[in-house]
Protein: Myosin motor domain-containing protein
Amino acid sequence: MSAPVNIIVGSHVWVEDPVQAWVDAEVSKINGDKVHVCTTDGKTVISNISKVFPKDNEAPPGGVDDMTKLSYLHEPGVLHNLAARYELNEIYTYTGNILIAINPFQRLPHLYDTHMMEQYKGAGFGELSPHVFAVADVAYRAMINEGKSNSILVSGESGAGKTETTKMLMRYLAYLGGRSGVEGRTVEQQVLESNPVLEAFGNAKTIRNNNSSRFGKFVEIQFDNKGRISGAAIRTYLLERSRVCQISDPERNYHCFYFLCAAPAEEKEKYKLGSPSSFHYLNQSKCCELDGVDDAHEYLATRRAMDVLGISEDEQEAIFRVVAAILHLGNIEFAKGEEFDSSVIKDEKSRFHLNVTAELLKCNATSLEDALIKRVMVTPEEVITRTLDPDAAVGSRDALAKTIYSRLFDWLVEKINNSIGQDPNSKSIIGVLDIYGFESFKFNSFEQFCINFTNEKLQQHFNQHVFKMEQEEYTKEEINWSYIEFIDNQDVLDLIEKKPGGIISLLDEACMFPKSTHETFAQKLYQTFKNNKRFIKPKLSRTSFTISHYAGEVTYLADLFLDKNKDYVVAEHRDVMTASECSFVASLFPPSRDDSSKSSKFSSIGSRFKLQLQSLMETLNSTEPHYIRCVKPNNALRPSIFENINIMQQLRCGGVLEAIRISCAGYPTRRTFYDFLNRFGVLAPEILDGNSDDKVACQMILDKMGMKGSQIGKTKVFLRAGQMAELDARRAKVLGNAARIIQGQIRTHIARREFIELRQAAIRVQSNLRGILSSL
Ligand SMILES: Nc1ncnc2c1ncn2[C@@H]1O[C@H](COP(=O)(O)OP(=O)(O)OP(=O)(O)O)[C@@H](O)[C@H]1O
Structure:
């Protein structure tokens, strides 16, 4: 953002603060480029003039509902505006057509009831207070009126409120596009009921959110030519597989495991289940229960939602049987075998769990045991059977659990899609994207790499869109915008996905080369990207690398990249599962197309994800996008706490500040002629006295003030960054001078009045005295 212009002594400004991000202050002295300010909490701070920003003292105390209405569009102004609104429980604010939603962490039912939906239906954008319904309504109307597909992209960090927002959007779209009075399993009902099912299997409690979605989701709602919902498709991205086997306190595994452990007694008995604390996959964390969530009730609710989705009784039975089998599988332990590097089932307890797992999966227990602890290698000469040591057997067990679970999840998504049904004749869709925001932790691995790659992609899409919107506004107003610079992150995307030579390609190469280790992979990266300005090799590290993302630098540990990128099912595991007598289990492991040779075509999670993203971007590019940026106001997940620094970081990562930057590169301040004259008429009263029309008067004021670069549109004045502050400073000077003249006049008047009174009193006293003296 550009440096402020015309900060003078007495100006009200925002100055940086290590605790509160920005505090307001008054300039007391200016010394070259150093400004001395006195903050409202009484401190004196010296800052560089480029680091202080003018404060709009005329901004309404409750904030403005659209950030573009702020006179000074800059970071502190934006933050202060959001804080002022959040205090009044106004959780939604626009920045142009981006909706910022700050998680209230408390139920605000009045915001989402049917009455609210009725109000927003058909209302013009910006007519009512900012709201998710308004965004959905605009998307719906645009689709109906222009026949064009629309998409709503919801993003934000974990716990920011993406899933809640998505559910609200879907509820509103179902309200607009649903059929009233239709009974039974309607498409819109099925779309809504897909949420609890996906949440049961794809959500878990994490430190950052009690109901965190561990996958990305794109819901495509199809409409017929009358604007009624006629079909829907759900695409999911990158389910977190590691959670199935590994959790840390105080997190939980996927909800469905706990729901099932709280099922009615006869079902628990059927699946030989006990409390969650008796299962290794659940008891690694002490947290088994969730405040405010009744697992038994949720189990029944999930079954009901499955009914609505058309998942049959038999299928439901098989699904939960598989969930139970995974829990038992996790309880199988291994001990060292007699032979070198071999293992055996540890004890009777483990054997019991092995048998139950086999029983539930309807597969042969001995084959399952062999698949867990042995590997068969086929060479041209012979077939060699190799045993696994206990550690490797545990790895094998966990790999099987993760594969079964992720396939179960994919099956559910496919089933939901089939049962809702697609409308092949649908001409227009509204897509809702609920996807993980930018992540940067102390330790970042392959998952964060993929997530941040997604965000780079979306950021590019966002920049292009915001830039386009700006251009459209300028074109509409017929002003020249040719010199506005476009900010692009193509260089980071090239670094990650370019083929050949990008990180994903190099990772695939490393995975295919048997001798590769994470160290050789990291060395290859260091070598290849040593001159890339987006890539940094951290000092003293042999396996980590840093990428300079649009939202900041993130250091990744390459250690598990190779393992996590490999996307294959152990052949022995597949064989056991395919041989299951349960058709449901067998169907989770369809024979691969290239099953004849064991060295089936290499496939990697990274490349597959890249393709998925490509297809998502193609879909998004064919739609008119709308953006909702969710913000998590505090990490305590409590209402009414607004943490400035935390929020600023999110605005930065969510591209809100980037959007503002793009806007600042052009004409961030726009005022209608009327507003402009109202505010700045005092700068040229002689112009207002003449009878020129508003547009001419505005131009004359701009010329008189020497506002180079500003432009006059058809209905508005467009000002470059900082020009509003400059005009305000001049206005303050004029008003200050005027005030001084008025004060001078008044003082003269008062002094004269006092003098006259005094003189009259003196004359009276004198004449009285003279009278007295003459009568003596
Ligand atoms: N509009 C809202 N009104 C009331 N509470 C909300 C709202 N939005 C979010 N919340 C609260 O915040 C919690 C977290 O929200 P949500 O699960 O939607 O976050 P998320 O961004 O989807 O997180 P994740 O990426 O971890 O899935 C919710 O469980 C709910 O308690």
Summary: Confidence is low (pLDDT under 50) at residues 595-600. The domain at 669-762 is CATH 3.30.70.1590 (Alpha-Beta Plaits).
